[in-house]
Design goal:
CATH topology of the largest domain: Aminopeptidase
Number of helices: 10
Distance between the termini: 23 Å
Number of domains: 4
Helix content: 25-40%
Domain S1 motif: 24-89
Cofactor: Mg(2+)
Keywords: Cell inner membrane, Cell membrane, Endonuclease, Hydrolase, Magnesium, Membrane, Metal-binding, Nuclease, RNA-binding
CATH class of the largest domain: Alpha Beta
Structural class: alpha+beta
Strand content: 25-35%
InterPro entries: RNA-bd_AU-1/RNase_E/G, RNase_E/G, S1_domain
Radius of gyration: 23 Å
Shape: globular
Organism: Roseococcus pinisoli
Order of helices and strands: EEEEEEEEHEHEHEEEHEHHEEHHEHHE
């Protein structure tokens, strides 16, 4: 999903409907283990996972006894072995399992921007959004991603982002933090850093980076970097999840950005699945142009196995194309051939 304002890319989410992050889901869970030292409790969830319920997210801030069933809402996606974050501050209703799925990015953005035109290239998606938005006429079936938008969003999958006039931003996500380096590439330092600050703020949103973030500007003394802090604060002013903490002793800007959904680099962590789904999307576009053409997808064994692990995606392709796609194991050099 892409959010555009006056033709400029303002938001981007890559979501896999058959592997949702669960944020916004309403479900029933059982208190499995109270953890006073963590000021909360671990909760057994319907999908076999374990979530965490802080005591501050329970009415009266008192956790019920172990074994108690509660109606819960997922407020944050799982992260690096840590379960989903939960709240019990919602109406307690009977039922079992997942009672209601949370909205995806397309629906969240459509609700947040009630004047926006919503384009979807799939008839079923158009129908889904119209049902969710009470038949709104602003939902239209059309090519949602043209070639330019495909190229721009594909660039977000790379660790570096080129800057106009030279230089680039380099993103290095680590388990504990994300480091972002500005490489001037020999261009003027002051101008490159000013351009980098504006683009850095945009990339935070597009990549949905979260947790501790360090920004290392190109060159400049600590005093010169400090002089650019107002520009950085202004660039981040409309990004609610981000808090600029200032410059640390190493001369790096320190930020903290709230995590709700998985950042883009986590969604893309399974490289075989990412490559396979990209090939499947390409095959779907080719099938739409030439419906009578039979397609075979050639890819390394790991990519084929990843696609086979998501049969719903293959079934969706077959429904749209009118026939299944043939999967063939090939050498690594064929990973981009469909």
């Amino acid at each position: 999903m892409a959010l555009l304002r006056d033709g400029e890319l303002e938001g981007y989410r890559l979501e896999r409907p058959y592997r949702p992050d669960g944020v916004g889901d309403i479900l029933r869970g059982r208190i499995a283990a109270a953890m006073p030292a963590l000021a909360g409790a671990f909760v057994a969830l319907p999908d076999g996972e374990t979530g965490f319920l802080p005591e501050g997210d329970v009415e009266g801030r008192r956790l019920p006894p172990e074994g108690t069933y509660l109606t819960l809402r997922v407020t944050r996606a799982a992260q690096g072995g840590k379960g989903k974050r939960l709240t019990a501050r919602i109406p307690q209703t009977p039922g079992e399992g997942v009672l209601e799925r949370g909205p995806d990015a397309a629906l969240r953005w459509a609700l947040a921007h009630p004047q926006a035109i919503v384009l979807a290239d799939d008839a079923a998606e158009v129908a889904r959004l119209r049902r969710a938005l009470a038949g709104s006429s602003r939902i239209r079936q059309a090519a949602a991603f043209d070639e330019a938008l495909e190229d721009e969003t594909a660039r977000l999958h790379d660790a570096s982002w080129s800057l106009p006039g030279g230089g680039c931003l380099i993103f290095s996500p680590l388990p504990a933090l994300t480091a972002v380096d500005v490489d001037s590439g020999g261009a003027d330092l002051r101008e490159t850093n000013r351009i980098a600050i504006a683009e850095f703020a945009r990339q935070l949103r597009l990549r949905d980076l979260a947790g501790p973030i360090l920004l290392d500007l190109a060159g400049l003394s600590v005093k010169q970097r400090t002089a650019l802090e107002p520009e950085l604060r202004a660039a981040l002013a409309h990004d609610g999840p981000t808090q600029l903490l200032g410059i640390g002793p190493l001369g790096l800007f320190e930020l903290r950005r709230a995590r709700i959904h998985p950042p883009l680099h986590e969604v893309l962590a399974d490289r075989s699945l990412t490559a396979g789904l990209a090939l499947l999307r390409r095959a779907a576009r080719e099938s739409a142009v030439a419906p009578s053409r039979r397609l075979a997808l050639h890819a390394p064994a790991a990519v084929i196995a990843a696609l086979e692990s998501m049969p719903e995606a293959l079934a969706e392709f077959a429904e749209g194309a009118g026939r299944p796609i043939e999967l063939r194991v090939a050498g690594q050099e064929d990973v981009t051939d469909a």
